[in-house]
Specification:
This protein has 224 residues and is α+β, with helices and mostly antiparallel strands. It has helices spanning 3-11, 88-96, 126-129, 186-194, and strands spanning 15-22, 25-31, 33-34, 76-78, 84-87, 102-106, 113-118, 121-122, 132-136, 143-147, 165-168, 173-174, 182-184, 201-206, 212-219. It has one domain. 14% of the residues lie in helices and 31% in strands. The strands form four sheets. The chain has a five-stranded mixed sheet with strand order 8-11-13-2-14. The protein has a five-stranded mixed sheet with strand order 3-4-5-7-6. The protein is globular. The protein binds zinc ion.
Length: 224
């Protein structure tokens, strides 16, 4: 390869932008393990009570009580279609700490497992983070896809306590596989770990105030 060709080749190398955030952590998102199953039969999109009957997008979370889930080494896990499931121990943690406004429904065929859905909403900054809302449906107002849940708190939203369990306003993901993003207080995350709950993964939620967004060009495609 001639030196000129080499230069051209080098210039044409794919590149992408990586964004890093630096700031004050005000809460955490809580993710679980994979439950390695679906709440509703894979591929089933008609007569699902949790989806719009016209466009089949996820609308609200209604668990399938007859689902059979085998518990792994976790106290919280998510199904492939976006449902959170918790163990008896996780339930006891919630009761012991008097958290309110949580929806917990026993899954009759999956002994000791419960569907879990916090009802209080935590406001995030969708615009600043660049969440993508793709193809709004006329039938129900849902989007086909809501991609990239923000990691930044909405500017005007005030956190009243550092011990809470809430969720973001939207269901995230694609079509009939969307699920909530659970957000917990900084104190709550510590309590969950101290209680010995397993399979918890936390990610930072930043305050928009004083947040530094650092963009860096790197080699390789960034899939967004
Ligand atoms: Zn619809």
């Amino acid at each position: 390869m001639s030196i000129i060709n080499w230069f051209v080749k080098k210039k044409e190398k794919p590149h992408g932008i990586v964004t890093n955030y630096k700031g004050n952590v005000v809460a955490w998102t809580l993710h679980g393990e994979d439950a390695d199953c679906y709440m509703y039969e894979y591929g089933k999109s008609d007569d699902r009570p949790d989806c719009c009957q016209f466009c089949n997008n996820s609308l609200i979370q209604i668990p399938n009580k007859g689902v059979l889930i085998t518990r792994g080494k976790w106290d919280i896990a998510a199904t492939y279609d976006g449902y959170y499931v918790i163990s008896e121990k996780f339930c006891n943690f919630l009761k012991d700490n008097n958290y309110s406004n949580l929806r917990i429904i026993p899954l009759e065929r999956s002994k000791g497992l419960y569907f879990f859905d916090p009802m209080d909403l935590f406001a995030l900054d969708y615009e600043l983070y660049g969440t993508k809302f793709i193809n709004k449906r006329e039938c129900c107002g849902s989007y086909d896809e809501v991609i990239r849940p923000p990691i930044i708190k909405a500017k005007d939203y005030k956190i009243e306590s550092n011990d809470f369990i809430m969720k973001a306003e939207y269901l995230f993901g694609s079509y009939n596989h969307k699920g909530p993003v659970i957000i917990v207080g900084t104190e709550t995350a510590k309590k969950m770990k101290a209680y010995g709950l397993k399979g918890l993964y936390f990610e930072k939620i930043y305050d928009s105030k004083g947040l530094k967004i650092i963009k860096k060009e790197v080699e390789g495609f960034i899939l967004d």
